[in-house]
Amino acid sequence: MCSNVIEFTSENIKATVAHACLQQTTDEDLFRKINDLFVLAPDYNRELLASCLASIESRNLLDSPGLSPYLADGSIWRRIDIGIWLVARLLDLRSETASALGLWNSIIDRQIGEISEALLARARLYGKTGDIQQAFSDIRNSLQNKRNYTFLLKVAKFYQRLRQQAIPKAVKSIRLAYLSSTTTDFITQILQVACFREGIDIELYTAPYGAFRQDVLNPNSGLFKFKPDFVIIATNWRDANLPWFVDNPTEQIMGVVDEFNNLWKILLQRLPCRVIQYNFDLPDLDPYGHLSLSMDGGRLQILRQINQRLAEITPPSVAVLDLDHVSAKFGKKAWFDAPYWHIAKQYPAHEALPILVDHNVALIRAGLGLNKKVLVLDLDNTLWGGVIGEDGLDGIKLGSSSPEGESFKTFQHYVLGLKERGVLLAVCSKNNESDAKLPFQMHDETVLHLDDFVIFIANWIDKPTNLRQIAAKLNLGIDSFVFLDDNPVERALVRRELPDVAVPEVGSDPVSYVEALDRGLYFEALTLSEEDKERHKSYKANFIRDELAINATSVDEFLKSLQMVAEVGPFSEHVLPRIVQLIGKTNQFNLTTRRYSEEQVRQMISRGNWTQYFRLRDRFGDNGLVGVMIARQIPGDKMTLEIDTWLMSCRVIGRRMEEFMLQTLIEAANTAGVSKIKGVYIQTAKNLMVSDFYDRMGFKKIMISDAGVFYELDLNDHTINSCKFIKRGN
Amino acid sequence: MNDLYRLQFIFRDVLDNPNLILNETTSVENCQGWDSVATVQMVLAIENEYNIRFKTDEVARIRSVSDILRFLNPYIT
Q1: Are A343 and B60 a contacting pair at CB < 8 A?
Q2: Does domain A563-728 sit in CATH 3.10.20.310?
Q3: ipTM of the complex
Q4: Which of A48, A100, A587, A671 could form a disulfide with A686 if both were Cys (CB 3.0 to 4.6 A apart)?
Q5: Distances in Å between the alpha carbon of A234 and those of A177, A183, A336, A338, B7?
């Protein structure tokens, strides 16, 4: 039967088939069969992983000697994505803590498979070894971008156990009462971890089932003994207790509104607390259909009016959570999950709890003054498509000329809305300042303009350093920052160096930027004052030009963690189109800006010039072919090599690849018995960032003329500094 | 199928007991922490894992691992 499996490829292999296959395999053959499967389907696959684990555990083969070679250092499984996960899980089960920890570290560093799950697994290990704060830290990271109910629940259970051993370090600790007429166990568990994610530790109280009104009315109730800082009154449409059709609409509306108004008054009289009040979600199903809205007394119409009235009368200490809007955001059909209402009095559906919890957390954060205040934006491929320094004003995508350009414009429009309601905007971009400002000054379709930003930083310094500088200049905590950048490497660097900065996972399609920013609920506030709206003006546009000090150690560490590998080689036909493209369009890191056609490059190859391309991979993926060098021997001077072209794509600027390129050139020169390398810098409007490049690389300036600045590097008294951060690999 | 062992992973997560060993006789009566809330959470996780949806009546009748396996069977064969 198992021969069937051979027909499957890594693309179409089904976990169910693997299941059947593993089940029919004898104990002796099991590991070999798993090995065959992994070779066929080496990618991480959750279901396949579960099958393999189950097949080993169910046969009690965890400690079998046949398994050991597959678990050992350097085994084939450890070199395959799905295999390394299986080995880590098995080592966990065998309680080989130290080896398991090493593997989880490696899985997390290299971002293999489901990182949230890996972080949770590592947290469990830290929990076992008693390193509780480290476990909390991994749990917090595992929660950052994962909003699946089952996962949150799993984390919540573990978190509760850990919290009995130690209280996590928190920015704020609060006492929170959750009052509801429905089951509260499901939501409060994940509310607690979601608050923890934001640095808020909560001590929790829930009212006796179905008795929240009594709890508020009775001055000796558990609620008042608990003395909460926050009270959430988690109502839903059922609590308005309305028939399909109401005969006396005005009285009904007044009745419901007065009831809650009265509960708030009592609460606020007896407790110095904040109240979060859910309003009423409009039910999905109604026998009156549209009549329910259009007829006076229709239930949907009544509920809307109640919601409207509640929003109008809330005192400052009460915030209304717009449950109806949240249910619509989630999707009404899935929100009203009938089975679990009848089975467990759970409402809304479990899958909707993460988004509902996020909205609660946003209002709690706002109540505690922990909401974000500053949005720091990258430019290229974040506020417009393309690279301004390369593509120029006419080349970038912004506005109605393309769908992509339109989505950047839509995003700018959303960002402008944030600014108008008092969020401070800042720019932090790797660019020449004059290039970076151009679109805001000159582009026909730009929505944002220079004076919308309180700080504008365009330089070539790492972003964490710049962000620290922005925080210092604005005199605001860096924990009030949101950083938005399309580049996953920049995001990872900021997350790593500045864990307090919120970094939304925006993806790579501009069409999703608005959603990623909005769903984060970073800027939720309870009120908006005139000062908020004017805040922007009080920070006089303050363009920072100062050279900023680089915190070298941490950047070095980061570059190391990127695990960069360069693939190099002489020009060949299959890479030629990309090389010619780079030669044709690279402006910034380009020492001579000599443009050549494909035919011209072919001639240079056939004349025996030294040519080299550079591809760069890192743990986030392949950056592609990003570096090009051409050098030629001077006729009649066998000892000298002259650099004709040296360029690098701006997407890898700051990675120190230039050092690796120079090292490659010097090695080639040594092999060829060359003792001197010449170079020239030819200035253009766009390549100022490399104006002192040869000086920095240790070349000696020998002549300045209209044709350029000429340099020499004498290899006899030059020692190669090998590049620490990039390994060579093909 | 190794469904018992796949359930075991789910039980370990929901009950936060990484060493739990499950067998068909494991039930609400003899398993620590298995209450009505946990039943719902297990059922949700199982539905998630197998991409199926139990009937309301089935969920209400789950008292033991053998119940789960019995109800699960028609959905996955």
Answers
A1: yes
A2: no
A3: 0.89
A4: A587
A5: 10, 11, 16, 19, 33
